[in-house]
Design a protein that fits this description.
- Helix content is about 25%, strand content about 35%.
- The protein is built from six helices and twelve strands.
- α2 runs antiparallel to α4.
- By secondary structure, the protein is an alpha+beta fold.
- The strands form two sheets. It has a seven-stranded mixed β-sheet with strand order 1-2-3-7-6-5-4, sandwiched between helices. Strands 11-10-9-8-12 form a five-stranded antiparallel β-sheet.
- The longest helix has 17 residues.
- It binds biotin.
């Protein structure tokens, strides 16, 4: 059973959902806001969250081990990709780890955070922001972000939650992997690996069941990337 809580405005739905999770909120307890004033992104970035988008955070309760958590984020990208395809009628691409792209521009960001509730039981908060509204993006986002036309945000929200519900089985069995590979915007392409101030170039070979990206550099050395960031844009050397 999913429990939905709607707000006109919040600093961040993930912050509100985490407070509820700490107090024992159940699997798929979900906080939705029409806009956020302090939307959080990966790597300590902010997430632009004006009216018109779909911003929500849901509590995931699973018996997965922390070692399996790395697969929850790419699985979530597949879940949102499936829901957007069904409800909005366009199939987004997935940029590792879990950005969704339309025409090469970002339409959705996903932030997974884990914690423990007051009884010590672990939980994951999955924060999802989808640009569903035609937005005048600030100039620094105009080149990299776009929106996906959505007939009904509430239907999309429920479709995403439906796709997420079986997270434990999907991650254990790896059933997300085939769809992830089929929709990947990076497999087979040259990517720029960003590490702090450092940049290096490699070819993305595959995504592994752990969620890691397998890349190979010019010398033939291969490596599994487990976090951080890659760019397709910084390839113009
Ligand atoms: C990213 O692209 O770096 C991840 C962005 C995640 C944004 C969503 S919007 C709903 C939830 N609340 C937040 O503060 N962040 C997530």
């Amino acid at each position: 059973m999913m429990e939905l809580h709607y707000f006109d405005e919040l600093p961040s739905t993930s912050q509100t959902a985490a407070l509820a999770a700490r107090e024992g909120a159940a699997h798929l307890y979900t906080v939705v806001a029409a806009r956020q004033t302090a939307g959080r992104g990966r790597l300590q970035r902010s997430f632009y969250s004006p009216e018109g988008g779909l911003y929500f955070s849901t509590v995931l309760r699973t018996a997965l081990t922390p070692a399996q958590y790395g697969a929850v984020t790419p699985f979530a990208a597949v879940a949102v990709m499936r829901a957007i395809t069904r409800v909005c009628g366009v199939p987004p691409k997935i940029k590792w780890v879990n950005d969704l792209l339309l025409d090469g521009k970002k339409i959705c960001g996903i932030l997974a955070e884990s914690g423990r509730d007051v009884t010590g039981t672990p939980y994951i908060i999955l924060g999802i922001g989808i640009n569903t509204g035609k937005t005048d993006f600030p100039s620094e986002l105009r080149e990299i972000a776009t929106f996906v036309p959505c007939p009904d945000k509430n239907v999309l929200l429920r479709a995403v939650l439906h796709e997420l519900a079986d997270v434990e089985r999907e991650v254990r069995e790896g059933t997300w992997l085939e769809a992830y590979r089929a929709h990947s915007a990076v497999i087979g392409r040259e990517v720029c690996v960003i590490e702090g101030e450092g940049r290096r170039y490699a070819t993305a070979l595959d995504v592994l069941p752990s969620g890691a990206l397998l890349v190979q550099d010019e010398t033939g050395k291969s490596e599994e990337l487990c976090g951080g960031e890659i760019s397709l844009r910084l390839l113009a050397k």
